[in-house]
């Protein structure tokens, strides 16, 4: 069985009386894109810093590519690409000088590889870092993370400052990494990024994972808006008693409702009439995310 790309066990990080993580158990499979979601303060950046040994855990265990980040040192870092949401480096060098230097630290990166990535991101390698805008500095960060084709990419809010066109180019790089069998662990507030690329999503709240699921599974569990047009009028009563169906309204021959979970009962009930048209509005990951948080909050209040 292949080694996990990332594994944490009962991981705890405290800051004085405050807890950043409260027993995090994380499993990231090799070759997958794992979306790591949560609001500000949930523990996303703390988790990433622990994975990179930028900070040390209070207790618990961390494994990255089968190694302890604290003990594996430089050898492990050469196998990892990291990008923070605000890429900050010494501004006196040109982008080319910096990337060449970082490439050499990682065992050498062909100049053609750096040039190719710079071209894709429309990055001028001849300009000094201090003269670049935030968006262009972030392009430098993207290049340095991907250029040595690492086994594992750890990306913390990676498209901060990039315009929409370059965000799409970044997502292409993520998909290419996955196609090559590499692993991507990506924290993001841009739900569309995760929706377009992730195999699985972990949602973190107050330092603990509250759910882990494939994106398709989250969609199946989510609430959808459904509109059905019939040839003849129907009654609200017939449909409002169906499992998973709520907020039923009927206007003339048009029925509108919200559907949570499987559509089987609703489809079978509709099939008892002549259906002229049906529209099901698929939720995006943002709706799923906030819907899940709302349900979690209701559960906490009830407890």
Automatic annotation (TrEMBL):
- Origin superkingdom: Bacteria
Residue ranges of every copy of the ABC transporter domain listed in the record: 6-231
Q: What is a single cellular component term in the Gene Ontology annotation?
A: plasma membrane
Annotated compartments: Cell membrane
- What Pfam families does the database record attribute to this sequence? ABC_tran
PANTHER family assigned to the protein according to its UniProt record, in alphabetical order: ABC TRANSPORTER ATP-BINDING PROTEIN (PTHR42711), ABC TRANSPORTER ATP-BINDING PROTEIN NATA (PTHR42711:SF5)
Q: What is this protein called?
A: ABC-2 type transport system ATP-binding protein
| Species annotation | Micromonospora echinaurantiaca
């Amino acid at each position: 069985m292949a080694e996990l790309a990332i594994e944490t066990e009962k991981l705890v990080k405290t800051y004085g009386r405050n807890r950043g993580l409260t027993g995090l158990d994380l499993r990231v499979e090799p070759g997958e894109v794992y979306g790591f979601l949560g609001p500000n303060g949930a523990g996303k950046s703390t988790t990433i810093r622990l994975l990179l040994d930028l900070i040390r855990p209070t207790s618990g265990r961390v494994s990255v590519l089968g190694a302890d980040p604290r003990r594996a040192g430089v050898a492990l870092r050469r196998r990892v690409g990291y990008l923070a949401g605000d890429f900050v480096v010494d501004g006196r060098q040109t982008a080319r000088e910096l990337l060449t230097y970082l490439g050499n630290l990682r065992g050498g990166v062909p100049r053609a590889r750096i040039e190719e990535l710079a071209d894709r991101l429309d990055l001028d390698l001849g300009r000094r870092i201090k003269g670049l805008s935030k968006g262009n500095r972030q392009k430098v960060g993207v290049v340095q993370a991907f250029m040595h084709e690492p086994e594992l990419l750890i990306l913390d809010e990676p498209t901060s400052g990039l315009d929409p066109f370059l965000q799409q180019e970044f997502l292409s790089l993520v998909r290419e990494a996955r196609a090559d069998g590499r692993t991507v662990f990506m924290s993001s507030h841009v739900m569309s990024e995760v929706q377009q690329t992730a195999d699985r999503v972990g949602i973190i709240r107050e330092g603990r994972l509250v759910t882990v699921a494939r994106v398709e599974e989250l969609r199946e569990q989510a609430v959808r808006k459904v509109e059905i047009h019939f040839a003849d009028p129907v009654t609200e009563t017939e449909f409002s008693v169906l499992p998973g169906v709520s907020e039923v309204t009927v206007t003339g021959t048009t029925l509108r409702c919200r559907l949570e979970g499987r559509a089987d009962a609703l489809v079978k009930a509709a099939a008892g009439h002549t259906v002229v048209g049906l529209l099901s509005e698929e939720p995006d990951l943002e709706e799923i995310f906030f819907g899940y948080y709302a349900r979690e909050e209701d559960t906490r209040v009830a407890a």
